Amino acid sequence: MIDTILKGLILNSYRRFFIVLAIVPIVSLSFAYYVEYILGVVPCTLCTYQRWPYYILFFLSILGISFSRFSNILHKVIILNFAISALISGYHYGIEKEIFSEPKTCKVNTIMSKNLSVKERIKLLETIPVVKSCKVVPFKIMDMSMAVMNFLWSILLLLFCCVVNLYYCKYAKANICSRSSC
To answer: What is the pTM of this model?
Structure first.
């Protein structure tokens, strides 16, 4: 069954693979924005960093759909992209479990001068961006934080792309994916 799915997905048209991959960031980012804007959960700095691989994935998928001659190179960059996504979310989970210390981007470091008036202090506080601690887990599904869900999702997609790449290199035509480049 998996063999049939991979043949239909890859060998008939490599563009189908990139179309499927273009859907992944749309669904993933839609969920993240739903949680943020509809449910009102403010993301921390690392949460916003975890979105960047999905923006990059969408761009790479569009390139793969448009320019099939670069599909093998794009595929490898996408695999690297998922590995980076898994590293960021794994690091975020480690911060949540206090395995790692928070980076400075997750903390507000404001030094107030004693010479400031009350109005000047209020004005300074209004200009400081809201930074949420990366240790705080405000939203869970099945007792998993979004960092854990993103880690598992990234690993699953990484494995999927690796399997597709191996399958494609094994069965595809030599002019698109030579043995030396796979």
So the answer is: 0.76
